[in-house]
């Protein structure tokens, strides 16, 4: 019964994600559009040194704010268009700035560890820990409306403490699929114009995954295993 119920939960989140994206098909190209814009800006500001790095940091927060805003609207099952672009720029800008600032301070404090092999190995372990602890940070930002950097980290960690198995099982399967793509097991190179089609397809798949995660987060957050078993068992 346990596996059946959670298969139902994961399946329902996927169905909801496809339906929500169906109302806003254009958002499938949003991730790759933002990525190309960010890369183009990087080429422009790269000669500026430290100032260029600062501008890229701001652009990173702008891009995350734009994407998070449209992601939130899609998960809310609203219709959105590029007319909301101006609103999206500032919607979550300061939240992402705060989070990136905290991570920058942590990286600055741990910088001296890079000079020794043992320190470098420890930094890699800490980086992996950051990726795990912050795995649900995007959903915490746009669904829980966190604002401070430490608040986002704490809420993401608290969610994962309560739901780490339920959250990481489907995410691990997704990572396995990505690994197959990266290692060429799935022949994406056979697509026409792979230099264009592969990044666009990758961005679209990323968007589907992120919308799916949003619906899954909504289901898991604030509910217990017992409540989910009772709720979804009745739908079987």
The domain count comes to: 1
The count of β-strands is 0
Unreliable stretches: none
Q: How much of the residues is beta strand, in percent?
A: under 5%
Which structural class matches the secondary elements?
A: mainly alpha
Question: What do these coordinates show?
Answer:
By secondary structure, the chain is mainly alpha-helical. It has one domain (2-233). Helix content is 77%, strand content 0%. It has helices at residues 2-22, 30-45, 50-75, 85-91, 93-110, 117-133, 137-143, 149-182, 194-220, 225-233. α1 crosses α10 (225-233). The longest helix is centred in the last third of the chain and has 34 residues, at 149-182. The protein is globular and about 60 Å long. It starts with a helix and ends with a helix. The mean pLDDT is 87.
Write the layout of secondary structure elements.
Elements: H1 2-22, H2 30-45, H3 50-75, H4 85-91, H5 93-110, H6 117-133, H7 137-143, H8 149-182, H9 194-220, H10 225-233
């Amino acid at each position: 019964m346990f596996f059946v119920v959670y298969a139902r939960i994961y399946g329902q989140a996927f169905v909801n994600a496809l339906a929500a994206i169906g109302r806003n098909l254009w958002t499938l190209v949003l991730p790759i559009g933002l990525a190309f814009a960010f890369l183009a800006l990087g080429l422009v500001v790269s000669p500026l040194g430290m100032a260029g790095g600062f501008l890229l940091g701001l652009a990173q927060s702008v891009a995350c704010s734009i994407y998070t805003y449209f992601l939130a609207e899609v998960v809310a099952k609203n219709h959105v268009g590029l007319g909301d672009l101006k609103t999206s720029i500032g919607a979550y800008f300061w939240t992402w700035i705060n989070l990136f600032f905290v991570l920058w301070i942590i990286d600055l404090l741990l910088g001296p560890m890079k000079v020794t092999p043992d320190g470098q190995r420890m930094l890699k372990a800490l980086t992996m820990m950051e990726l795990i602890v912050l795995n649900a940070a995007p959903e915490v930002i746009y669904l829980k409306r966190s604002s401070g950097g430490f608040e986002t980290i704490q809420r993401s960690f608290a969610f994962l403490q309560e739901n780490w198995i339920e959250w990481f099982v489907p995410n691990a399967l997704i990572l396995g699929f990505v690994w197959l793509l990266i290692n060429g097991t799935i022949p994406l190179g056979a697509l026409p114009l792979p230099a264009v089609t592969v990044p666009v397809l990758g961005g679209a798949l990323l968007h589907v995954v992120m919308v799916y995660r949003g619906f899954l987060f909504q289901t898991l957050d604030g509910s217990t295993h017992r409540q989910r078993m009772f709720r979804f068992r009745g739908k079987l």
